[in-house]
Design goal:
Nitrilase/N-carbamoyl-D-aminoacid amidohydrolase, six-stranded mixed beta sheet, 44% helix, alpha/beta
């Protein structure tokens, strides 16, 4: 299933993988299947998905975090096994609740898979990475459901397509042994029609424009300094980092210039005032604004991972709200674990969830920092007021792994859900401009130094997902599970 996600993005593999899981959990003839057996099957599926798909966690802990290799490997394996509990729980409930009837079973499977992903997305601060819906960015026809139902709605449709594909195969394999009078029961045409309707509807929805351009297009420059993670925080490299970003900003003029997360590798009060003045002068010279990532210290032991703007619109600031456990804050009882790693600035304070968009270059900009754009419902809190989405990241922590490409794919889903363009400025990649339809308009090669320039438009209006968030999908999933419980009680002796 990992190949369904970026960088390969073979989105149809997700349907085959989920269909295979549905088949392994048993057909309506497998009445003796026990929930524990189903949980073990799905846990194995989940373990394979996460161990292969988020193996970059080991890179961040060992290669760049300095943790002993054996401890980092063990921590990565335990984390991936913990994530596999969610599909295991869904499978156990599926086996317990499923009754006769192929359509009921397919709907129940899709509902439980989606609810498990929703639970994984918020439990203990959440880890929604590799949610099945992320594999369905364009050109997948299921991408059309994103503005309507969000990534969880896309997951639901993806799991349903997989289950129906499994049913098609089962019927074909069973046709030879079935009597002619039962042709309708065994005919593959019915689930094929269901698949066709789901895919065709998604394809047609991709042509719907939920938002409209607002204001004049603005020029942007997204800077990628390509500062090696192992060098970034060394004091002797501080001046070079400042010089790199100043030169990139000077040589690539734009109305809105965006630097990555912690582009200035120090606390704000440690950055020379004349350097900040020089950045402000560059921005004002173009009647625009410059946004950069920097850590901000306030009082005793209050540190914020922030984005600060200078320029024609005055100084504005956004503080990261959703912090990464072990990377940006230490969960209670895990100080011993963090003592084995050497991760700078790993104990931040969360910003206020009620921060307004920043007014930059005539647009209302919703800023999110690194991992925050993984959480769709948190991104839409700034909408519909915001006209542009901006993500600043430093994925150098994960080296040349799957993480940068997967992160860009997640950003594409946020653009689809919100009907807003997404601008990504990263330290080492993937720096990109993503259009409202989820397509990448332009991207810099990873591990190169440069600036991505282009013209972008703000958008106004609200998609259905912006208005309702995840609750329609969660409500539908719970309703399907409740119906399955009711039907199970009716059919049990």
């Amino acid at each position: 299933m990992v190949t369904a996600f970026a960088p390969l993005a073979w989105y149809g593999v997700a349907w085959l993988s989920l269909g295979g899981l549905f088949a392994l959990l048993g057909s309506e003839a497998d009445g003796d299947r026990c929930p524990g057996h189903g949980a073990l099957i799905a846990a194995s599926h989940g373990a394979g998905l996460f161990l292969a798909g988020v193996s970059w966690i080991y890179v961040s802990l060992s290669v760049f975090g300095g943790m002993p290799a054996a401890v980092a490997a063990l921590a990565t394996v335990l984390f991936c096994l913990a994530m596999s509990v969610f599909p295991a729980l869904a499978a156990a409930l599926y086996v317990r609740l499923a009754t006769a009837g192929w359509l009921r079973r397919a709907l129940l499977f899709a509902a439980l898979w989606t609810l498990a992903e929703w639970l994984r997305g918020w439990f203990l601060t959440g880890f929604p990475w590799l949610t099945a819906g992320y594999a369905q960015t364009p050109p997948s026809p299921l991408a059309g459901y994103a503005p309507l139902l969000g990534v969880l709605g896309v997951s639901l449709s993806s799991a349903l397509v997989g289950a129906l594909l499994s049913e098609v195969v089962r019927r074909w394999l069973s046709t030879g042994s079935c009597p002619a009078r039962g042709w309708l029961r065994w005919c593959p045409a019915l689930p094929i029609v269901g698949i066709a309707v789901i895919l065709a509807t998604g394809h047609l929805l991709r042509d719907v424009r939920w938002t409209q351009p607002v204001g004049e297009p603005i020029s942007v420059a997204l800077l990628q300094g390509n500062v090696a993670q192992e060098m970034k925080w060394r004091p002797e490299r501080f001046a070079e980092s400042l010089r790199t970003y100043y030169q990139l900003a000077r040589d690539h003029p734009a109305q809105l210039t965006i630097l990555p997360e912690t582009a200035l590798p120090a606390f704000l009060d440690q950055v020379p005032a004349e350097y900040l003045d020089a950045l402000q002068e560059l921005a004002r010279r173009r009647q625009g604004d410059l946004l950069f990532g920097v850590a901000v210290s306030e009082g005793q032991r209050r540190y914020f991972n922030s984005a600060l703007s200078v320029g024609a619109s005055g100084r504005q600031r956004y503080d990261k709200v959703h912090l990464v456990p072990f990377g940006e804050f230490v969960p209670p009882g895990f100080a011993w674990f963090m003592a084995m790693a050497h991760i700078p600035m790993s104990d931040f304070t969360a910003g206020s969830p009620a921060q307004a968009p920043l007014s930059l270059a005539g647009q209302q900009v919703a800023v999110n920092i690194c991992y925050e754009d993984v959480f769709g419902e948190e991104t839409i809190t700034a909408l519909p007021a915001a006209t542009l989405l901006v993500n600043i990241s430093n994925v150098a922590w994960f080296g040349d792994s799957l993480a940068p490409a997967q992160h860009l794919q997640i950003a594409r889903m946020r653009a689809l859900e919100s009907g807003r363009m997404m601008l990504r400025a990263t330290n080492t990649g993937m720096t990109a401009i993503v259009d409202v339809d989820g397509n990448v308009r332009a991207v810099l090669p990873p591990f190169t130094r440069g600036a991505l320039q282009g013209e972008v438009s703000g958008h106004s209006g609200a998609t259905p997902y912006v208005r309702w968030g995840n609750w329609p999908v969660v409500g539908l999933g719970l309703m399907l599970v409740a119906l399955a419980c009711w039907h199970r009680r009716r059919t049990e002796p």
